[in-house]
Design goal:
CATH superfamily of the largest domain in chain A: Dihydrodipicolinate Reductase, domain 2
Number of domains of chain A: 2
Radius of gyration of chain A: 20 Å
Number of helices of chain A: 12
Largest interface: A-D, 45 and 45 residues
Order of helices and strands of chain A: EHEHHEHHEHEHEHEHEHEEHEEEH
CATH class of the largest domain in chain A: Alpha Beta
Strand order of the largest sheet of chain A: 8-9-7-10-13-12-11
CATH architecture of the largest domain in chain A: 2-Layer Sandwich
Structural class of chain A: alpha/beta
Oligomer: homotetramer
Helix content of chain A: 25-40%
Low-confidence stretches of chain A: none
CATH topology of the largest domain in chain A: Dihydrodipicolinate Reductase, domain 2
Strand content of chain A: 15-25%
Largest sheet of chain A: 7 strands, mixed
Amino acid sequence: MIRAGIIGATGYAGNELVRLLMGHKEAEIKWYGSRSYVDQRYADVYRNMFQVVEDVCRDDNVAELASQVDVIFTATPQGFLAGVLTEEILGKAKVIDLSADFRIKDVSVYEKWYRIEHKSPQFLPEAVYGLCEVNREKIRGARLVANPGCYTTCSILTAYPLVKEGLIDPSTLIIDAKSGTSGAGRGAKLPNLYCEVNENIKAYGVATHRHTPEIEEQLGYAAGREITVSFTPHLVPMNRGILVTEYASLVRRPDGSLPGADELRAVYESYYKEETFVRVLDDGVCPETKWVEGSNYVDIGFTVDGRTGRVVMMGALDNLVKGAAGQAVQNMNLLFGCDEKEGLALAPMFP
Amino acid sequence: MIRAGIIGATGYAGNELVRLLMGHKEAEIKWYGSRSYVDQRYADVYRNMFQVVEDVCRDDNVAELASQVDVIFTATPQGFLAGVLTEEILGKAKVIDLSADFRIKDVSVYEKWYRIEHKSPQFLPEAVYGLCEVNREKIRGARLVANPGCYTTCSILTAYPLVKEGLIDPSTLIIDAKSGTSGAGRGAKLPNLYCEVNENIKAYGVATHRHTPEIEEQLGYAAGREITVSFTPHLVPMNRGILVTEYASLVRRPDGSLPGADELRAVYESYYKEETFVRVLDDGVCPETKWVEGSNYVDIGFTVDGRTGRVVMMGALDNLVKGAAGQAVQNMNLLFGCDEKEGLALAPMFP
Amino acid sequence: MIRAGIIGATGYAGNELVRLLMGHKEAEIKWYGSRSYVDQRYADVYRNMFQVVEDVCRDDNVAELASQVDVIFTATPQGFLAGVLTEEILGKAKVIDLSADFRIKDVSVYEKWYRIEHKSPQFLPEAVYGLCEVNREKIRGARLVANPGCYTTCSILTAYPLVKEGLIDPSTLIIDAKSGTSGAGRGAKLPNLYCEVNENIKAYGVATHRHTPEIEEQLGYAAGREITVSFTPHLVPMNRGILVTEYASLVRRPDGSLPGADELRAVYESYYKEETFVRVLDDGVCPETKWVEGSNYVDIGFTVDGRTGRVVMMGALDNLVKGAAGQAVQNMNLLFGCDEKEGLALAPMFP
Amino acid sequence: MIRAGIIGATGYAGNELVRLLMGHKEAEIKWYGSRSYVDQRYADVYRNMFQVVEDVCRDDNVAELASQVDVIFTATPQGFLAGVLTEEILGKAKVIDLSADFRIKDVSVYEKWYRIEHKSPQFLPEAVYGLCEVNREKIRGARLVANPGCYTTCSILTAYPLVKEGLIDPSTLIIDAKSGTSGAGRGAKLPNLYCEVNENIKAYGVATHRHTPEIEEQLGYAAGREITVSFTPHLVPMNRGILVTEYASLVRRPDGSLPGADELRAVYESYYKEETFVRVLDDGVCPETKWVEGSNYVDIGFTVDGRTGRVVMMGALDNLVKGAAGQAVQNMNLLFGCDEKEGLALAPMFP
């Protein structure tokens, strides 16, 4: 059995990790770390786990935890892991970090967008960006995995094949993203109150959202050059789910014609046909967040618009699963040589 | 492997059966029966099942289905199964009926509340009411299981121990029930439109709802006499979940004092301590539908009100799981000697 | 013009008062009092009021406010007004209190349920309970009006005629109430977060909710004797609206027969036919909160259940209008001799 | 008094017209036309109007209606008005059409996007596109007003000043729009069921939505040339509200620099400072649909993104008010010389 510890087990992503690991045949949770609920019964914090989890919350001492488990998940605020990570910890346990601390290779970019100092840039070079479908082999051998952001996972996987194959001009890429409210976390803040979110939709963090440089870095690798994208997140009155709608100009063929839908489909298929967790939808079908709820799937669709010469790419995932805890488990499976689907073979729940 | 067929696979309860059976190690679905979608790909009707279910919908021919499977689930309108059931069918396959056709022993009561003629009353005596926690042993040997209604399961389990032990006066029992909208089915009807349900709550079927006689019959068995209850369902703007709030006068002790909370707790514990799917909550904790979503749990809480001499009992379940498909799988497990929890060991999803 | 001041203008009820007074021809708001937002632009706190309200928030100094306005609305936490009210204030301005401080005549009952000391019980005798349909004449001459609670208004008006006319036995009265989330206020508390409330329903404050003694006192006046009721509130995933479902045993006629629906209807009509804001629905129609949203209406329906000998009474209102700010404006209209409907002639908004 | 008739009074937009006209001092409704509910009491179809509207629904005979009223509102399916409109009707009554029949000047464009034949193209030249803020003077003298679409109103007003002043390149304009569900109407269709919409978001009509040519035509007038835009609507789980997020490349100054936020703000102010119903929000404030709910406001915000050289423009309105019935009343006010705000001076309702 893989012994797992969770720091930040009482956030929404932490609770989702617990849910998924409960159904994982080769892992068991040894440490429910929390800052706010130390010594409280975990099931009193999340009553869905009543009679499922009997443990009491422990603190967030990563160093101590490292000597008791094989893998540590950190679902913690930005800066936490960078502030405590040591060579000794990495020598004892694998670390899968759900925060942004080790996602961005360029420390100055991180510090500019997150406005905090990075306390352990020495681990950045070895950290592997844990987007499984893209970096699978690198992940297997890693000690430190930077689990991608929720918006980022959806945004990248939706555009990746077309960027990589040069079918779209990445400088024209515009990502309009919509997220359920669990992405905002369980903190008691006025903007997240029921009456403020319900019957409402708004954009936020326009031109400044922190997932932007992460998307740009990863899609830049695919493009083979630095790129700049427009990324606008929106808050939607639902618990779970991210939908991205991405616009980009198609690169015309030498004869001036546009690549057709069949050509784009063939590219998507070549990248994702073997991927269990990426479903390229049939022609004319638009993804819906409800169809992936509770599962680790990303659903992708696209429409070629001959009038404008653009393609509209759409992707949907559950922000707490493939956008956080599910991908973290997928990374754990890769790290420990388990079946990549173990603990993740859940059909989406509808309605 | 248990070969299963579903008639009514394209309703919400049918789809939930598919979701649960996909995770069941000893069962496989051989027939996705539907009236409206024959010959269409199941995953085109429920896109959550894209790349999960490859089958095409078949018709609702129960007789033919019986010769191909070990168990038939009927998630069909009232009257359908009673209209087609035969001895031959029951000789070939077990039948678990999610409709009301075989729940009520007295055919005249059925016909009065449902306003349809019962076409095969000859099977009523052998039908077993599939409330697993109450009728476990009878279910094991049955050919025909009448899977309880969603409101009914919640209403009965919440009050059963106190009625059975004579701690409350069943003639004072008032059940105020609240349900999510999936209980109304997937039919395209104006009252079920998003804009009619959202930001709204209403009672319906006041004093006439069809689950009333089912509750009265089963709690009457517990009381040892016929009882009459007030049952009022309400439609709540959420997808899943039933909450019942039940009021009854406590039976005073010979010395005129009221039984205390400890006494009631002891009774609840004695009935449910060994039951995996019934969770008696801690003192002062009220059940919430969100804590059981996606799972087969029923959560039960209660408060003794010394001022009024009443107890307020509360129960919560997911109407599509323990209130329909989950209980049906639990019944299948009993019928075929599987572990009762097989396919149902899902932690509730939150949020 | 009536000059009005609001203490607690930045709560949800306060904002609703602002909305309604903006449409009132004979009133103008002179003071937007707030504890948390002093010196901030009101429209920055409630952006719906951008370019509608230009004022800046002021503090909650009631004494100073009293010399500047004709009427003071206090939409403040329990205990606030009782802590600051003086004879001098009441000599200068009328006070309409949306808190519970002056609703309950018996100070020991108040202190027991609210668990705070009452700082100015000397004003209790003169305070008028501002349920307009019941106490209209007394309100006209008052200096201090105790605006009823949201649950209370709905609970009382729904049962009042039948209690007053002795058609039901008030000792059997059970009130199962459901409320939208705005009733919980705008405080940033975890249980009110979107993800905690959405897709969820729960009871709370079972047997201990503070509106209970208020209901008992007022319906006790109607019954002509002290009564005790069961009252259970529930939190529903919607912004606005309260629905009450009330159960009581009908008092049989001398010949043992039950009073009929016609008899009950005649009683309701005799009390409410002339009341603009109480709508007694047609036979068989159940009230829905959506039908009164944004308006000052209370919709009432009922069903006689011959099987159980009970009547099920149902009432619906908008908790922020008739349950708070709308009734406060109605009280103001009575205090100042305006048309009782002024500022309140808004048709409900659907959907 | 202006005598008004409504054809399609039993749709959501029709009901909103009724709500608004109930509060209009100079208009009264003489005809509640309906196809499905002829001879039924209007208040039985929309119970919010119980005791507010006593009338019975009539049919959709526009010719007969024309001789009884001063203005006809048609909130009808595409093609209906074009199929029945005559010179005689227009000679008797003003017509404000909430359908698309007379919005698009080029009949071939209409027929291509709507896939129906236009039955009375002879009236297209005189029809005035009823976007009040743009065409105010033309509207005053019109007989036939084509009330703009909901998405269209929001999309155009949000971008209009920047297009008109040449600050953005209209060929780069991408409109990502999000709508509440009332925009889909009250038809009983499966995709509009509560359980299909709730907890879900999706794009639809990608590259084919019928509001596209309407936006292109009107913004083309502003640009002074034909333009092509990307327009993608999304369905959001809420009753009311449209939010548009629009992306366009800023036109660089001769010196290669980008125009600044101040410059854009000055342009917006010059167009909308005197407009009651358009609110240009403060710097850094993003519009939210909840802040305009129930009102005739359009809220507009924008962010200059120096990194990408684009501006992100955002607009929000209530699709049933400024996006349909409110704008129709505004048009009526212009046609009949009333105060343009009459019946529309409603502060938004929050929450």
